[in-house]
Amino acid sequence: MKKSIFFIVVVAQITSLFLLGAYSSARAQVPQEDVALVALGKQLFFDTNLSVNGQQSCASCHAPEVGFTGPDSLVNLDTAVYHGAIGARFGNRKPPSAAYVGESPNLYYDASAGEWAGGMFWDGRATGAILGDPLAEQAQGPFLNPLEQAMPNARFLVIKVANSNYAGLFEQVWGPGSLSLKDVNGAYVRIARSIAAYERSTEVNPFSSKFDLFWDNALSAGKDVTHIRFGSGGMGGGGMGGGGMGGGSADPYRWQNYRNLGLTDAELQGLAAFNDPNRANCASCHSLAPGADGYPLFTNFGYDNLGIPRNPDNPFYDMPPAWNPDGEAWVDYGLGGYLQSAGYDAAVFEPEMGRFKVPSLRNVDLRPSAAFVKAYGHNGYFKSLEDIIRFYAWRGLTMNGGLGMGGSGMDCGQGGMGGGGMGGGMGSAMMCDPNLFPPPEVDQNLTPMNHFNMMDQANILAFLKTLSDGYQP
């Protein structure tokens, strides 16, 4: 008996070392980067001197320790909207992540799908039409925005870069005279492209999460993660508890067939619920399709109106009329608002009112400590992953009539098991409360959403925590 146990332990250790070696090897197999260009972009990204008073850099709102989004726990808990270099000035939205977004195409309308996609910023206004690169266009925006880095003009920015301690690196990368004031616009573009290169680098996008190790292991085992689900049999979409009863053995995509590849059962069930069209169906927008590096980016770069409530603590409501002429009556219309301001006809912009860019979910839980607060949603209304997951499920149940077998019939109409899983009666009652969350800020063009039970909510949370970079097997 002892020999058997010893044998099992040794095999497990050898297997672990093999998987770790394969993981490290996969991490090393990345396209060659222009090291100097990335280094230059990093200098620009972290330089607080590239603001009107030397108080703010790109990293002030997009810090690596939190997945390149807002790094101040107190701000996230309170307003969620960050002040600019001039402390009394505020933007109107939560900082999105600057990581894993470099593959977003130019803003375009997909006539076959009837949807817009691409561009940068929450509203897509960095379309890519000018530079052919939405990420570089986005990098230009904050420098001259009076509510952010507040530089008076591009000339002033170029002068500051020319006087920096990395000006020599700039000319090494872009050539002699690349910071000449005779070509301010060209220098401004080169600054932006440098930052975009850093934001596309392996330092910002390392694909080093627990999920990525699981993805590599599944690929090696010949298993397609993009089809994982609860199975074609059993209780279906609104089943008992977490769905452990579902799926016949003939279904190669049921979650049980992905065991022993790096995720726990709870994380696997969360991924299955995330991907299953009859459960939460998150992957319909936060796609599992692999990107250019061979790993999912967890976004389709599209736009949706989730029905997120107005954030009453948004300091933009109190900004002077020069920046917010509507005051407290201001409504954030997202993509539709941008399309309207860009001169599109009402037939184009009205169906897009209230829609915002689908963010990547990578590093969605990355934080320096367990007590650190991150904000979620374009306006930072939600203060925890648990809260926004609950909102998704509640919206699918009470505002959309529920889709799939976990919908309103099982949860509210009969007071049954679907809403709270096994023994989740109090959860069901809470989920059926039509006033659990305030009404949407923009109550039109709402995206249809699935309801999913309380056990699925807990498992999806467990799965989302596997998307944080820096995982050590």
How does the SSE layout of this entry go?
Blueprint: H1 2-28, H2 35-46, H3 73-77, E1 108-110, E2 115-117, H4 134-144, H5 154-162, H6 167-174, H7 184-199, H8 210-220, H9 265-275, E3 303-304, H10 334-341, H11 346-349, E4 356-357, H12 385-399, H13 408-413, H14 425-431, H15 454-464
Antiparallel strand pairs: 1-2, 3-4
Helix pairs in contact: 2-7, 4-7, 5-7, 9-15, 12-15
Question: What features would you describe in this structure?
Answer:
The chain has 473 residues and is mostly helical. It has helices spanning 2-28, 35-46, 73-77, 134-144, 154-162, 167-174, 184-199, 210-220, 265-275, 334-341, 346-349, 385-399, 408-413, 425-431, 454-464, and strands at 108-110, 115-117, 303-304, 356-357. The chain has a two-stranded antiparallel ribbon. Strands 3-4 form a two-stranded antiparallel sheet. The longest helix has 27 residues, at 2-28. The radius of gyration is 24 Å and the shape is globular. Residues 1-31, 233-248, 403-410 and 414-425 have low confidence and may be disordered.
